[in-house]
Design goal:
By secondary structure, the chain is mainly beta. It has 1 helix and 11 strands, in the order E-E-E-H-E-E-E-E-E-E-E-E.
């Protein structure tokens, strides 16, 4: 069983930055691809970025060049560095673990509880 706990959300103005963290159960990063997803009210959950066990990354076009995914294996922590934030980035952000390198949420097996990000104009 994989346990994931996100933190780091908050409220920022447009153009600002935030760093989200996701603490995972031990050995999670050795086995699973990790992803960040977001869901805004009234919208479907969308994939933001993914990172596999070898360090390969993938990004949604909407965040490419602004967001960066990374992990610290020693701390069992996944990060999402978000820069140049826009109001449309406002959403609940979730980290997830799965076996497939993809941005499709149905392919992920384990989910955190989420952390809210609000960007004001």
């Amino acid at each position: 069983q994989v346990h994931l706990v996100e933190s780091g959300g908050g409220s920022v103005q447009a153009g600002g930055s935030l760093r989200l963290s996701c603490v995972a159960s031990e050995y999670t990063f050795d086995t699973y691809c990790m992803g960040w997803f977001r869901q805004a009210p009234g919208k479907e959950r969308e994939g933001v970025t993914t990172l596999d066990v070898d360090g390969r990354t993938g990004y949604a076009d909407s965040v490419l060049g602004r967001f960066t995914i990374s992990k610290d294996n020693a701390k069992n922590t996944l990060y999402l560095e978000m820069n140049s934030l826009k109001p449309e980035d406002t959403a609940m952000y979730y980290c997830a673990a799965g076996y497939i390198f993809t941005l499709r949420s149905p392919d992920y097996n384990y989910w955190g509880q989420g952390t809210q990000v609000t960007v004001s104009s």
